[in-house]
Structure formats: structure tokens, C-alpha cells
Design brief:
Elements lengths: L1 H22 L5 H4 L13 H12 L18 H9 L2 H6 L17 H12 L6
Length: 127
């Protein structure tokens, strides 16, 4: 009987060792939590960065014959007007004194806000 148990010992050791090795691995922090892509706010253009954000997040309510809040954002001139009076940045940044937009939704991604702010600060060029 003892002889049979002694023959099982190498098998048991092998199984325990295999299980132990399977549970050991190295996690790389960069692999588990990759950095978000950088937000390039240099040379922001109206047509490439600003309009797509406004179009997909704002014009559903702020366009047409009766835009919400009587604020139209359906073309370049409307958007520049909102940028120049401070309402564009005030609302998308959820600043005090402005109605946070998009209404009933969360804040726009920080990168989108940074790009729009960069565009406004650069003079709202139509490029």
C-alpha cells in the first residue's frame, strides 16, 4: 500500500507544480490600462474637428425653423456667433451661468471640448 502511494507522489507534485505555474503570469500595466490617445489641439480646423462635433451633438436641437433656446448652430456663422459671445464654450464646458449642453446628456469628451476651445482661442478660422 505504501509502495502504491509513493508512486503517486511524482504525479501529484507534477499536477501541483503545473497548477502553480499556470497561475503565475506577469501583468504589464501598459497592457492592462493603455493610455488614451493623445489629444492634438494644434491646428484645429472648423471643417475637420469642430463641425463634426457640433453636427453630431448640437444640431439635432439647435437647427431648423425653431431651434431650441432660439440658438441655431447649423452653419459656420451661427457657431462663430456663439463662440464670440461665450455661450459655445460656456455651455459645453458646463460653466456656471450657462445651461449645460448637450441638454440631458453628459459632457462632451474632454478632447472635443479642448479642440473647440483651441479653435475659438485661435480666432474661429473657417479652414
Amino acid at each position: 500500500m505504501i509502495n502504491q502511494n509513493i508512486r503517486k507522489v511524482p504525479s501529484i507534485i507534477a499536477i501541483v507544480l503545473l497548477a502553480f505555474l499556470q497561475s503565475c503570469y506577469y501583468d504589464n500595466v501598459e497592457d492592462l490600462y493603455p493610455s488614451p490617445p493623445s489629444c492634438d489641439t494644434t491646428n484645429v480646423s472648423y471643417s475637420d474637428e469642430v463641425w463634426p462635433v457640433i453636427s453630431s451633438n448640437c444640431t439635432g436641437c439647435h437647427s431648423g425653423g425653431a431651434p431650441s433656446g432660439n440658438v441655431s448652430l447649423e452653419n459656420y456663422d451661427d457657431i462663430v456667433r456663439a463662440a464670440n459671445n461665450g455661450s459655445l464654450l460656456g455651455t459645453i464646458k458646463h460653466e456656471n451661468g450657462w445651461s449645460p449642453m448637450p441638454k440631458g446628456g453628459g459632457k462632451l469628451p474632454d478632447c472635443d471640448i479642448a479642440k473647440i476651445e483651441s479653435w475659438v482661442n485661435a480666432g474661429t478660422k473657417d479652414n
